[in-house]
Amino acid sequence: MFSKTPSNSFGKMHLVACCSRHRESISIKASELWDDALNVVQLDDVFMVGICRIDNEYIAYDLVCPHHGANLGEGSYDGRNFHIRCPWHGYTYDLKTGNCIRNPNIEGLSLLRTRSKFYEPALIPKHCLKFFEVSVEKDVIKIDLSVGTLGEL
């Protein structure tokens, strides 16, 4: 895992210790979150939620990579462009849309001397991050974990 104030190759990640969980939702004080970082809430041994603020709006999503299930909380976060990169295979996701924006296999496959008939250099997988509904009341951010929606395709 990472420490309280880690810095990955792109931007900062912040592990949020204070949150309350009520069955299908969590509540966090906005003052506990960092505006310039990817805030990570660990709910149990496996399930983690990422929260970031983009254009004065809080966005929450599942930190499980849709490609093969890696923990995106251990990946790299680009706070300037709001991208997160998977630590296992390097797929990069846009946190504004949830879309996969970089397929790391393209670079490797383009080096092959004899390409497969299935090789398509512009192919971007249809993996999308799962977003959760967020509501803000005063200084409390509520995240509904019961219903997740996939990013745009």
Keywords:
153 residues, mainly beta, Rieske Iron-sulfur Protein, eight-stranded mixed sheet, four-stranded antiparallel sheet, 12 strands
How would you describe the overall organization of this protein?
- GO terms for molecular function: 2 iron, 2 sulfur cluster binding; metal ion binding.
- Its cofactor is [2Fe-2S] cluster.
- InterPro entries: Rieske_2Fe-2S (IPR017941), Rieske_2Fe-2S_sf (IPR036922).
- It is elongated and about 60 Å long.
- The strands form 2 sheets. The chain has an 8-stranded mixed β-sheet with strand order 1-4-5-6-11-12-3-2, with no helix packed on it.
- The protein contains 1 helix and 12 strands; from the N terminus they run E-E-E-E-E-E-E-E-E-E-H-E-E.
- Residues 1-10 have low confidence and may be disordered.
- It has a single domain, classed as Rieske Iron-sulfur Protein (3-layer Sandwich).
- A hairpin with a 2-residue loop joins strand 11 (130-137) and strand 12.
- The protein has one helix at 105-109; strands spanning 12-16, 20-22, 25-29, 37-42, 48-54, 57-62, 76-78, 83-85, 92-94, 100-102, 130-137, 140-150.
- Helix content is 3%, strand content 41%.
- By secondary structure, it is mainly β.
Summarize the structure.
GO terms for molecular function: 2 iron, 2 sulfur cluster binding; metal ion binding. The chain is mainly beta and 153 residues long.
Give the arrangement of secondary structure elements.
Elements: E1 12-16, E2 20-22, E3 25-29, E4 37-42, E5 48-54, E6 57-62, E7 76-78, E8 83-85, E9 92-94, E10 100-102, H1 105-109, E11 130-137, E12 140-150
Parallel strand pairs: 1-4
Antiparallel strand pairs: 2-3, 3-12, 4-5, 5-6, 6-11, 7-8, 8-9, 9-10, 11-12
Keywords: 2Fe-2S, Iron, Iron-sulfur, Metal-binding
GO molecular function, one term: 2 iron, 2 sulfur cluster binding
InterPro entries: Rieske_2Fe-2S, Rieske_2Fe-2S_sf
